[in-house]
Amino acid sequence: MTGAVFQPELIELMKKVLDDATAMLPEAKRTSTIKADIASEILACAAKGERDPTVLKSVALSAVVDGARYSHEISLDRRAIRACTKLPGAPA
Fold it and tell me: If both were cysteines, with which of 29, 41, 47, 55 could 1 make a disulfide (CB 3.0 to 4.6 Å apart)?
């Protein structure tokens, strides 16, 4: 994702997706760490070309849930790449 440049419209979309995804979590799980993890997933998928807010939100939330199981095995960057590529219709 190094060097990715996002247009202002996409930044607004990603912010809304982050807010929507965070709002779906139980209040006790809305920590700054979880929010940062969700933001990282959204950024990684957007950098690969994904623009569908539903897909971005699903990938981000799935990665946070999966992260509880895999955090000791797979880095955040690798999980983001894996998550973006496993959804039907996601850019390769």
Answer: 47
Q: Which two tokens stand for residue 63?
A: 């990665």
Contact 87, 42 (CB under 8 A): no
Domain annotation covers residue 91: no
Provide the domain count of the chain: 1
Task: Provide the residue range defining the domain that includes 30.
Answer: 8-86
Whether residue 53 lies inside any domain: the answer is yes
Residue that the structure tokens 């139980």 belong to: 26
- Residue 3 in domain: no
